[in-house]
Amino acid sequence: MITCFLRYEIDPDRIDDFEHYGRLWITLVERFGGKHHGYLLPAEGESDIAYASFTFDSLASYEDYRTRSFDDADCRAAFDFARRTGCIRRYERSFLRPVTEGIEP
């Protein structure tokens, strides 16, 4: 299992546009077989930082999603929406391996 963790620098005057963009991608990631864990938008503190994460079964599954997303009309429309509105200034992507089960000490 692999989790993609995203840190966005967003335009604080375009938070509503960024939220719309995020809602589009929640649906799209899940359509391609991933599990989206949602977006975290500014509430207090820095107003230009947001986060998101989603998980795929493997890095290969993630790569397949990425490849297919570039050919998908709905994904292209979401990319275009972000470009048109300027809601995203930049983003960083990291890949993490989740640990979700505890053990007795």
UniProtKB/TrEMBL annotation:
Q: Which InterPro entries match?
A: Dimeric_a/b-barrel, NIPSNAP
Q: Which Pfam families match?
A: NIPSNAP (PF07978)
Q: Where is the NIPSNAP domain?
A: 7-99
Protein origin, superkingdom: Bacteria
What is the name of the protein in this document?
Answer: NIPSNAP family protein
Q: Which organism is it from?
A: Roseitalea porphyridii
